[in-house]
Please model this.
Amino acid sequence: MHGTPLVAWLLVGLGASVALSCLLRREARAEAVTGAGMAVMAVPLSVFDPGPWGAAVLAAAFALAALHSLLGRAPHRAHHAVCSGAMIYMAVAMAAAGSGPGGHAAHLGAGVPLLTGLLLCYFTVYVVRTGLTLAPGATAHPAISAAHSASPAGGVIRLRHAPEVALACRVSMALGMLAMLLAM
Model:
């Protein structure tokens, strides 16, 4: 999952900022967990090498997050389960690459190409489809339309609870997943 240090630090920043933003929103805990996990996984190995236990801890945390997503009531729980599954997959690939020749430097080429390709396709379609609903002038996402119609006379919705923020967080996380999967 580790490419150049610049890309790694950009992913750390993306993951940490999404995690922080989502922590402020009680209903976005799944995005916060994914963002924090992404930030930890993207830290350059020259700064922090979690060793063989790190991948197992991350995989276990994301397995619990996937289970929580599947048992939850959120309308986007299937997407969260796919995100958690992708994080488990990347953590397992990280552990497998670490145990083989080349150690963590062998991340490039780690993983199962077919599964990596399917995840890349899923996240690409998700980013394009959801990102288009956030574009100005686009047909609004149903949650956004409902929130705006529920606000009195088009009043201002507090930013941290605006549906656009949740969608933007999910699109940002999906873009981060794309970057991490491309680095495999």
